[in-house]
Each structure stands twice: as structure tokens, then as C-alpha cells.
Write a structure and sequence with these properties.
Strand content: 15-25%
Helix content: 40-55%
CATH class of the largest domain: Alpha Beta
Distance between the termini: 50 Å
Radius of gyration: 20 Å
CATH architecture of the largest domain: 3-Layer(aba) Sandwich
Number of strands: 14
Length: 349
């Protein structure tokens, strides 16, 4: 009788339940493709560190973004007891967390993970940050053509050639980015009076260009920022825990399913092909889930006490104009302009 191989899938995101369902979908689809051959053990970063006694820095959580995103204050241990999340003292400490995640994949200590393209872009391959560019995609169909097609697959393969980690497919982390706050924002000019925190250097540049008061999270002591102040955060619907949304839809918040080359090379060609089919199926499904979740969020917003203000055509034009500053400086970001050209040209297809 063939012994099943165990694949450890380490989740690196909040809200955890959204990424658990992705891992579960992968497990179920893999069983259809390769019945009886693989088990998938689904773990959080903290759960992996505690169970296997490795990479303790994976227990760190990012400093809460002004208390405006879903970041748990507590977690449930394997024995059923409750513990407190260990927040990093500063954003700089997150280098320890992400380095541990990528070391674990590279070393084969776990087999699969899923993390933000911006994190992949920062630590592994700067071209992945291209996906975070403002107004790069015209709609969800354009995203699918690019990320599921030759461009996305080439990016995944190139990552495996440049590093000891390869991409399998692209999923969302909520889809379109918006601005969230606990005070109402109705136009871009009001961001000058708020303390805005973004997730990427690209967004820092974009919003600085329209006069927003962007916080440098690497230099600011976040503990000094009062949650009751006029704070705002770049986020997505499903990551947000506040009461007011300024719907800018300026870029896509996406993630990449990753595996280590060491594990990948233990698979036969047929198994590799099956894994790729499963990853693409899961990616398409997960992005559809995220779109449906966003639609439901909007439908239920009023009943949940959430205000959503859509960006005006005038402000959207101003934000798009500001995005040209970002595109004019791709070299400083380490992004290949030829890749960006490929993605934008796909709008014509």
C-alpha cells in the first residue's frame, strides 16, 4: 500500500478563515487529481512554529495598522487554550517573520504557502511588485487573462529560476484596494488631514503625489498613534474592521501560492502537471469567491453600519494622473518596464 505524503501548507495572512478555505480547496482538488497520494496539513505560521519548534519569528504579527484591519488580539492554541498574539515592536521586525517564511519554503521544512505579491516583490523578485501598480488592470477579467495566462506563468517560472522558491498561481487578498477609516472620507483632499498607512512603497508614492499625509511605517512608532485620531488605511473590504470606506479601487491586493524548488523536484512530471492544474483551479475559484464576498459586503454595508463613498470621476482622474509618477519611476522600484508593457497591452485583447 502506498504511503501518503504529507504536504504542510502554512497560512501567512489575516483574516485566516479566508485563506484556510483556499488551502482546503487545494487539498480537495489535489485528492481528485492524485487520489490517495497526498495529505495536506493546514497550519498558521504560529501553528507551524509551535508544533514543529522551528522558525519562532513566524509567531510575530505585524503591528496593527491603526487598529483598522482585522488582526486578532488572541489566538487558540492546539490544546484549546487561548494565547495572546505577539505583535512586532516595529514594522522593521517583520523582516524576521518573512525571512523565516521563505527560509522554511527554501529548506523544505514546509511545502506550500501563500503570501502577498508585494512581499514576494520585496524579498524575492521585484517584478512581482508590478501587480501592485495603480490602475494596471481594467477589470477582473483582465486580471485573469494576465495572471492565469502566459504572463503570470512566466513570472512564476522566473521566480523559481532566480530563487529557490517558485510560484504556482495567483489569488486575491480581497481584490480591489480601498481606503478605510473610522471617520467619513468623501474626497482625495481629505486624505491630507488623515494619517494614511499603505501596504506598499508603490501606494506611498501614489498617495504622496496627491497630497495625502502618508505615514512612514518604518520610521514611525505606531504605538504613539491614537486609534481615535483621523487615521486611514489602504485595505480591502474583507481585511477592514472600521466603519467608513472610500472606494478608490486603485489597485489589486493579490497573493501568490508558492512552493520550494526542493519539494517541487521530488515530484514526477505528471505530479507537477497535476499540481499546476490544481493550483490554477484553486486560484480561479478563490478570486471568484473574493469577488462574491465584496459584492455581499457592499449589499450588507448599510445594515452593518458601514458607509461606502465612491471616488468621484474628478478625483479618480486626479489619482490616475498621479499614477503616472509611479510608472515614470519603475526603474527605482526594480520593476521591468517590458513586463508592465505586456500587462497593459493585454487590455487590447
Amino acid at each position: 500500500m502506498t504511503t501518503k505524503r504529507t504536504i504542510r501548507w502554512v497560512i501567512s495572512h489575516y483574516p485566516v478563515h479566508l485563506f484556510v478555505r483556499t488551502a482546503e480547496k487545494f487539498r480537495d482538488e489535489l485528492e481528485k487529481e492524485l487520489p490517495g497520494q497526498f495529505d495536506v496539513e493546514i497550519l498558521t505560521m504560529r501553528g507551524y512554529a509551535e508544533k514543529y519548534g522551528k522558525y519562532p519569528n513566524m509567531k510575530l504579527s505585524a503591528p496593527n495598522l491603526l487598529n483598522l484591519e482585522h488582526t486578532p488580539a488572541e489566538f487558540t492554541k492546539r490544546d484549546g487554550t487561548t494565547g495572546t498574539v505577539a505583535f512586532a515592536d516595529s514594522w522593521k521586525d517583520m523582516v524576521k517573520k518573512w525571512s523565516s517564511l521563505f527560509d522554511g519554503l527554501s529548506n523544505g521544512d514546509f511545502e506550500i504557502s501563500q503570501t502577498q505579491v508585494g512581499i514576494v516583490g520585496h524579498y524575492l523578485d521585484k517584478n512581482f511588485s508590478a501587480i501592485d501598480l495603480p490602475f494596471l488592470f481594467e477589470d477582473h477579467d483582465h486580471v485573469s487573462r494576465v495572471l492565469d495566462g502566459d504572463i503570470g506563468m512566466s513570472m512564476c517560472e522566473d521566480l523559481g529560476k532566480k530563487t529557490n522558491i517558485r510560484g504556482l498561481a495567483f489569488t486575491y487578498s480581497g481584490g480591489y484596494r480601498v481606503i478605510g477609516a473610522n471617520h467619513e472620507i468623501t474626497n482625495l483632499s481629505e486624505l491630507a488631514n488623515a494619517q494614511l498607512m499603505t501596504h506598499t512603497p508603490i501606494s506611498d508614492r501614489l498617495f504622496n503625489a496627491v497630497g495625502a499625509n502618508v505615514i512612514d511605517k518604518f520610521k514611525t512608532d505606531l504605538s504613539t498613534l491614537d486609534a481615535d485620531d483621523q487615521n486611514a488605511v489602504e485595505t480591502t473590504y474583507l481585511r477592514f474592521s472600521g466603519n467608513h470606506v472610500y472606494k478608490t479601487n486603485h489597485s489589486m491586493f493579490t497573493t501568490t501560492i508558492l512552493t520550494g524548488n526542493g519539494f517541487w523536484n521530488t515530484l514526477t512530471e505528471d505530479e507537477q502537471a497535476a499540481f499546476m492544474r490544481v493550483a490554477k483551479t484553486v486560484a480561479v475559484t478563490e478570486r471568484a469567491w473574493s469577488i462574491a464576498d465584496a459584492e455581499q459586503y457592499e449589499q450588507q454595508a448599510a445594515a452593518n453600519g458601514i458607509t461606502i463613498n465612491e471616488i468621484s470621476e474628478q478625483d479618480r482622474a486626479q489619482l490616475q494622473e498621479a499614477s503616472q509618477y509611479v510608472y515614470a519611476n519603475l526603474g527605482q522600484l526594480g520593476i521591468d518596464s517590458a513586463l508592465v508593457d505586456q500587462i497593459t497591452q493585454d487590455r487590447l485583447h
